[in-house]
Amino acid sequence: MSRRFLVIGSFAAIYLLWGSTYFAITLGLQSIPPFLLMALRSLCGGIVLLAMRAGKVGSVSLQSWAKASLCGLLFFVGCHGVLAFAQQSVPSGVAAIVLATIPFWILVMDVLFPSNQRP
Fold first, then answer.
1. Residue 47 burial (10 A CB sphere; 0-12, 13-18, 19+)
2. Whether 34 contacts 84, CB under 8 Å
3. CA distance 2 to 107
4. Cβ-proximal residues to 70 (8 Å cutoff; 6+ apart), any chain
5. What is the model's pTM?
6. Residues 6+ apart with CB under 8 A from 27
7. pLDDT in tens, 23-56
8. Rounded to an integer, what distance in angstroms lies between the CA atom of residue 119 and that of residue 19?
C-alpha cells in the first residue's frame, strides 16, 4: 500500500467520522434531550478509554482522577452540551463550521488577554 493512499485514506476517514458527529447529534436529538444525549456519548467514550487501560486504573492517582473529572465535566457542559442544545435550532453544517473556528477564537483570546504562562 502506497504512502499517498494511506494519507488520502486517513484524511477521508477523519472527514467522514468527524463530520458525521454533527449529523449523528441531529439524529439523536429527534428522540433524546440534548444533555442526556451528550452524557451518553461521554459515557460511551469513557467506557472505551477504561477498557483500553484494562486493569491499569489503580495506577492513576486520586488527584489525577479529580482533575480529569473536572475537565471532563467542564468539557461536557461547556462544549458538548451547549453544542447539542444549539443544534436543536441550527443545522449540523453550521454547528460544524462554528466549532471549527474554535482555534481562531483561542488565538484571539490569547492576543487580547496575553499570559506569560505556558499551557
1. exposed
2. yes
3. 37
4. none
5. 0.69
6. none
7. 899 999 999 999 999 989 888 888 888 888 776 6
8. 28
Question: 3-state SS of 2-49?
Answer: CHHHHHHHHHHHHHHHHHHHHHHHHHHCCCCCHHHHHHHHHHHHHHHH
Where are the chain's structural domains?
3-112
How far is the C-alpha of 10 from the C-alpha of 41, rounded, in Å?
23
Per-residue DSSP letter, 87: T
Question: Helix 92-100 and helix 3-28: axis angle, to 10°?
Answer: 120
